[in-house]
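User: For my dataset I need records formatted as: sequence, then structure tokens, nothing else. Please produce one.
Assistant:
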Amino acid sequence: MGWHAFEEHWDNTFVRELGWLGVRIDPAPVATPSLLAVDDELARELGLDPDQLRTPEGLAVLAGNAVAPGSEPIAQGYAGHQFGQLSPLLGDGRAHLLGEVVDTHGRRRDIALKGSGRTPFSRGGDGRAVVGPVIREYLVSAFMHAAGVPTTRSLAAVATGEQVLRERPLPGGVLTRVAASHLRVGTLVLLATQGSREQLAEATEYTRARHYPDVPADDPMALLVAIVGRQARLVARWMSLGFIHGVMNSDNMTLSGETIDYGPCAFLDQYDPQRWFSSIDHAGRYRYSAQPAMAMWDLARLAECLVPLVEGPPDAAVEQAQEVVESFRTTYDAQRLDLFRAKLGLRTVRTVPPHEDNPADATLVEDLLDIAAAEALDLTGLFRDLARTLREEPTPTLDGITDRERWEAWFGRWLIALDAVRTDGGGVTHHGDRKDVADAMDETNPVYIPRNHLVEEAIAAAHAGNLEPFHALDAVLRAPFVERPSLERYAEPADPGFTQGYVTFCGT
């Protein structure tokens, strides 16, 4: 069905219930839009015909040149802590929430445009996005979804036919983003700092009803517990993939628990916990290793918003909120260990007590990452190579290790752990054939990720009018766990010289 047939499916609860938390405004038309990509699978999930999106009428909506029937575009208002400092009013300065639909699975989804023109929140900006960051978000969000990471998704990418002035003139673009919602920690920060208690309570209840219906109403601390838990599990997934968000400001943390805003994001090649790539993160506040602590910092700002809604003595509410925020670390640590255990093929709990040659799983994980840091190993290739050792296949990443004695000691302990007697809750059992373990590891360790140099290659080619590298990389990333012939270059890390000087920019 096309956008006209879609009219009856719009159900814009944000506009209806919280319309005062934004400004109703249509996207600004662009000169000569052309389609860069459409996610056919996502379109069908939303109840849309992808072929209809490729028509002139569909393209007009995706570019912001027309408003789909039933859509009620609005620029949302929110605040945010940018690199630790409160910005009291941010809002959608170059985005328009077109509305909400209930998809074919019964899930409510936002459909929004990014780069769609000025709004009252633009603060002097041009309201536009650049093709490069649009392509980056399209590629990375597709990979994150395929890898099982909760994420906003990209329905379409459009070139506007206009130049956008940044450090230099660059081709403009518009991204169509789909999200569980665009509610952020910064949404409640705006109301807690500038709104009324009634407005704060109304937005909090809307968040609970939309994203956490099992949480009791009028229990802000129970809502905080749910949000903290989702964020802890989300960040653990980032860390297991070597993903660096790049700009973890409180306006970039969703209340739904999805990853949002892929502007200056990047992935680790050479494993270095202290690495970051964002051009605007001058001190490395959001470096890879700091992401759990920064998530807790943002969640503490959320807790400050919810405390005034708690009935009873304020001091007791503050103490309870602190405990909830601090529970992030326990949930995160447990989830991260589970993920890395799976990456190492340790899928069940061992009954053999830890000892020097058979250490606890957490020790095994940390010792491996210490080796990866000391040897500057490619994180993605490392875990794929571990599975290859069990099949006696070539291991290009492991072959580069220089401290062989240290490596062989760890490797021997890992093999002992794999062969240890384990229990799955139904009695004691042996782990099983090592080939089966390797296959299970390959199901959790991607062979293909959006490697920084490949993303930049796709962007550069698109700037020159060649979309083939973009579409080829997109196709690879949508099946990241399945190794395929003739795709070797997509699994190879960048040259160290590229990584050393690599910088990402926020342009969407």
